Amino acid sequence: MPPQPRDITGWAPGDPNEPIISLTVRCNQRCVFCSRGAEVVQYSPARIRAVIAEHKDSVCFEGGEPTLAPDVFKWIRHAKKSGVRDIVLVTNGHGLEDPALARRYLAAGVTLFNVNMPAHTEQAYDAVTQTRGNFPRRVAAVKNLIAAAGPKKVRLTFVVNTLMLKSMPAYAAFILREFPGLFYVEINALKLLGNSAARRWLVPPLSAAAPYLQKTFKLLSGGGLNFLTDGFPLCYMKGYEQHSIDAQAMARGETKFSMGEKGNCPPCARCTLAPLCSGPRKDYTALFGWKELRPSKLDPAAVLAKFERPRGKARRAAGKVG
Ligand code: SF4
To answer: Which atom of ligand 1 sits closest to the CA of residue 267?
Structure first.
């Protein structure tokens, strides 16, 4: 059989795919923490079709800013027609303050809007996104999406960085006040990839982040808003371990492709929570080492009991340690 042609993304028919579709490299913001960069490519139609054919549970339309792609509706409709259950639009909210546009995305098939909301004031939003004057429109977009889509259809993403670290509790108060009906917020550790790779100063040490993370978790929990975290090891999730997206997957006995970006370190060998913890991000330990990790002595079964649907595999794993 002749070799299959590779497309501009380096992908060839038959290559494995993540459930992610990059529709464009263009973006109208320049978020300082953006992990996209030169390695981001616009997927070819053949690759988009392959991702959709391969992932009937869920696909994410991303970019750049996918709403800038001229064929965004065509591909969302194609995913819906192909029977994909969850169709996620990962967006900065561009244009979505328009109720008609929000309804158009819903009619095409979007089941979840994942909105990058990086700040809670105009000044901070401008600084973090390196744009001017977008904040009121983005706030209006989130409110509009919640109104148009209804419950469990809008989530926010917040990337922890040194510019916003001390404002995180105020950010939590802001989203609790402004966005009733929000499904959840995901709080992510910064990835030193793409555009942010050279901005090491944006990554707070875990010990510096810890008090602000804890205050934020407490506020969100107290306000009744669900949250998930990605990239924070369980030793920095004390009391809130069940909100770690990787720990949830491990509790279900699953692995996620993003776990490859993290890894356990020498102190983890002494930690009772290692079977539920994917460890810190590898780019974090390359920067700061692993001396801040705090091996836990908690009973892993007690931690596991806090998860909604703990399953046998992780229970067995948790039982092996400690
Ligand atoms: S010491 Fe290691 S295994 Fe234990 S919680 Fe921290 S990162 Fe996870």
So the answer is: 1
CB contact at 8 A, 101 and 55: no
Determine if ligand 1 sits within 6 Å of the CB of residue 91: no
Q: What is the pLDDT of residues 163-197, one digit of tens each?
A: 999 999 999 999 999 999 999 999 999 998 877 88
Return the domain boundaries, the chain.
20-230
- Cβ neighbours of residue 167 closer than 8 Å, sequence gap 6 or more: 119, 120, 121, 124
3-state secondary structure of 11: coil
pLDDT, tens digit, for every residue of 28-85?
999 999 988 766 789 999 999 999 999 999 999 998 999 999 999 999 999 999 999 9
Query: What's the predicted TM-score (pTM) here?
Result: 0.91
Separation of 269 CA from ligand 1 center, angstroms? 8
Q: Kindly report the CATH class assigned to 20-230.
A: alpha beta
Distance between CA atoms of 35 and 32, rounded to whole angstroms? Answer: 9
In the numeric block, which tokens belong to residue 303?
A: 């931690």
Ligand 1 pocket, residue 279 CB under 6 Å: yes
Distance 305 CA to ligand 1 centre (A): 18
